[in-house]
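W.,

You were right to be curious about this one. When I first looked at the sequence I had no strong expectations either way, so I just let the prediction run and decided to look at it fresh. Below is the sequence, 456 residues in total, followed by the output.
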Amino acid sequence: MESAELIAILQEVRDRVRSRHPQGVEPGATGIPLADLMPLLHARDAALGKVAAIGTVNPRPGGLVNGLVQTWKKFLARVLDWHVREQVEFNRKIVSAVDAAIEALGETNRAIGQLAARIAEAGELKDMRNHWADWRADWERKLQQNEIQFLRSVADLQGAAQHRATLMDASYRDQVRAQHQDFTSALQRQMIEVQQRLWADMERIRLEYERLIYSELRTIRQRAEVRGKPAEAPQRSASPEPPASLPFDYGRFAERFRGSEEYVKDGQQFYLPYFAGCRNVLDIGCGRGEFLEMMRQAGVPARGIDLSEESVATCLHKGLDAEPADLFPYLAALPEASLDGIFCSQVVEHLPPAHLPEMLRLCASRLVRNGVIAIETPNPECLAIFATHFYLDPTHQRPVPHPLLAFYLEEFGVGSIEVRRLAPAVESMPSLAALPDQFREAFFGALDYAILGKKL
């Protein structure tokens, strides 16, 4: 089949469809009512039927009469054909005009449908524009809220980061400070340990040096005695005469003028570090046993001697190791280097000056190497003792200055001499506070002093 014929057939089909459906769209599909052309189509079809029937004869049943009638009708139709020809043409033109009107009305309906569709699309576009405007305003509002929330989140994160940085900086500073303090403390401890070792070494060297000097001096003296002309040595009394018994209660006397046992114990506490670690301590003139009690509490074995049987009985009553004895025969009977500590409080001032060197010689000879000796006595540098304390005791012979005691101790092999001043006079005589400090310290300082040393 030729393409032209196919195109003609398609055009004819399209025309027929348009003729049957002149609106082109469903009525009311666009929302606009269109004119219904179907009655006009039916009328046109009826008119076409009438036009087509002009000049035809109605069929009748067959027969002679019918044949004659049909013949007559056909003759009349041919005769009257000239008369009705114009009418037929007019009717056909009218039908053609109706077809054209129908076609125009169909095109009008289609145009109206398209226009309605476009109007609907424009309405939809308007709705979309209104919706877009509303959506844009809501979007801008939400965008503003999101921006505000984002900025708040950024601010919170920045604050948290700043706070964390501050905490980390503070923690770092604390750690550095703690490390610095630990380093400083460790350095200080190391310095203290080094200083302690240094002082200990210096003390040991000093003791060795003093011990060497003492040994050399003793050797020189021995050589001088051997080389020199022998002289008659004075007879040294083995034991000085003991003092006569007192006609009063000496324990009550000591309680009143020396002080209570608690007062004496408090004053003797500073001796404890010097005798810590000793294993055999002798208390010469133990009295009521204050020093022995302190040693017992510290776990240091100690025993005491005293001329007063009453004082010894007091010590025994307390469960202390004490016995009545004179210091000279007692020390002479002890083996040499048998003691590692000797304590003598308020005794040397009772001895005659000539007997003091013998006592210190015996004490030094009974001490082991590095053995400790401590002697406590009234301080003659303090003028106040002569007006008050010293001459209250009738058994006192004379005060002993600490340079003299230090000299005797050094002569008999005792080194590391240390002097401690005790019982400031201003405490018992407040009126001394009115004196200038330097004058008071020089002439009214301590009522007592203690001299300590170690056997070389």
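Here's what jumped out at me. The longest strand covers residues 367-378. And, maybe more interesting for your project: Strands lie at 281-284, 302-306, 322-324, 339-345, 367-378, 414-424, 446-455.

Coffee later to discuss?

I.
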